[in-house]
Amino acid sequence: MSSKKIGFWSVWALGVGGIVGGLFPALGVVIQIADAGAPLAFAIAGTIALITTYAYAKLSVAHPCRGGTVTFLNQAFGLGLFSGTLNLLLWFSYVVMLSFYLQAFGSYGISLFTESTQPIWKHLLISLAILGTTGLNLLTANHIGKSQIWIVSFKLGILILFIIMGSSHIDISHLQPASVSSLQSIFAGAMVIFLSYEGFELIANTAEDLVNPKHTLPRVYYSVIGFVILLYVLIALVTLRAEPIEQILAAKDYTLAEVAKPIMGQFGAVLMTIAALLSTLSASNATLYGSARFSSVIAKSRGFDGSEINGRDQSSIGLFITSGITLIIANFFDISRISTMGSAGFLLIFAAVNLANARMHRYTKSKQWISLLGVGICLVALGMLIWFALQTDPQTVWVLVFMVGVAIGIEVIYYLSKNRQLHL
Questions:
Q1: CB 87, CB 70: distance < 8 Å
Q2: Rounded distance, CA 314 to CA 320, Å?
Q3: Helices and strands (H and E) in the chain: how many
Q4: Among 7, 215, 261, 338, which is least packed, fewest CB within 10 Å?
């Protein structure tokens, strides 16, 4: 790939694009769990994300490279079973979430076609989306950044217009304790909706391509999370005041398109559908960009260099492998179940990254207690997510067990095949 550098707004757009894609499928879910407390749940989840962002910002400045999370774990824990398993689990989670975004893209897209042809169009749209984003990622980082700026600007414009036009519907008293759900349901909703903030870790993968990463990275991390928290809270407030909750929940898979009708009219609903398509597409682009880059770092940590793969760019090899597996999963697997456990995989990774920064706090010049707090919060969030899955669909928990088991198995087989000493 080209060595052209990307600036603040390009990586900011990449970060926002990777996060906001989760808003559209998540909004109805958090309203279903937290009821009128959904805005507060968004704020709580954003605060939790901000704590983990601290670890990512510190580690990214200390290790400004394309490996991101993979590099952080390897540096903190060494090359062993623990870091290797987490690296593979991270890649599995990326593939699952990328498939989730693409299925959401296909589901929104088929609404533009006649019902009889929708099944065919869904597969076609999913395939075109993954092929298109793969082609885009073969271009330079500069092209990727510019495309994200245009896509994110357009979809944010629609969302901000929705907030402005619906501002007359906002009633701040809706957040008062007398009118919100119980604290238990609000915190449960916050733990689940935390998954919609996870895209911020993609920013770490851009460090090597970023202009002045030491100065720019912290600004990008904190401004992205701050902006998204405000956006989510305002959209939740407008949504709750647009229609009765029962009607919102009846259309929870396409909540924003539904509530846009009384606020912006039928044309507004179409605009919101377009925003959903752009949002899931840009999230797929950002996710694919990050996963392809850290896959080459995983390969290098296992002793594979460019000569062992015929001199091809390892980022491109990782891109093709990731895209190929995603193409199969997104088209032929039911992603609704495994998406929850894919996100659980991310929470495990975030806990490990917080632990990595706590362990390296002197080197990264960090406050150790903040990252230790992040470890605890991420593990609590993971526990609540598993508890929620056990209450709603217990079989999904086995997906997480399977993912972790496969990751451990691959690592053990690798060490045995290389006759290397197996250690944590």
A1: yes
A2: 10
A3: 16, 0
A4: 215
